[in-house]
Amino acid sequence: MLHSTLALSLLLIAVSSNLAMAIKKEKRAPQTLSRGWGDEITWVQTYEEGLYQAKKSNKPLMVIHHLEDCQYCQALKKAFAENEEIQEMAQNNFIMLNLMHETTDKNLSPDGQYVPRIMFIDPSLTVRADITGRYSNRLYTYEPQDVPFLIENMKKALRLIQTEL
């Protein structure tokens, strides 16, 4: 009786240990740099790091300027994070940076400092002025309904690397 109780106890411990490890693997802590834009995406910390990684990897850098208390940024963030195609491209084809503050680099605010603003920088470290949003008064802004347009611009950034660089 004691032997079977001990065996049963060891079996329960082994099963619960394996279950705990499976749960731990499934629940991945959100990456703090994502700030809600996509926890599965690898984000760089600074603009300078993004430029370095873009050049090194030959991938475009996608820079998202936003503020935490901006309702337009929050709406775009939600649409961005929920779109599987954007998330997949961001994970695999781009160096990603989201900034909650303005950078001192004037190339990242050619038409003003507003949010949300999404810009593409190619591996030659050129800000792509030919990849803009739909609005003439804020060239690099996108709204939630512009997600299909943003996807097309992401694809355009990838095509330009293949044809120009």
UniProtKB/TrEMBL annotation:
Superkingdom per UniProt: Eukaryota
InterPro entries membership: AGR/TXD, Thioredoxin-like_sf
Keyword Signal listed: yes
Gene Ontology terms for molecular function: dystroglycan binding
Family to which the UniProt record says this protein belongs: Belongs to the AGR family.
Signal peptide interval: 1-22
Listed GO CC annotations: endoplasmic reticulum
Protein name: AGR3 protein
Keyword Signal belongs to the record: yes
Entry keywords, A to Z: Signal
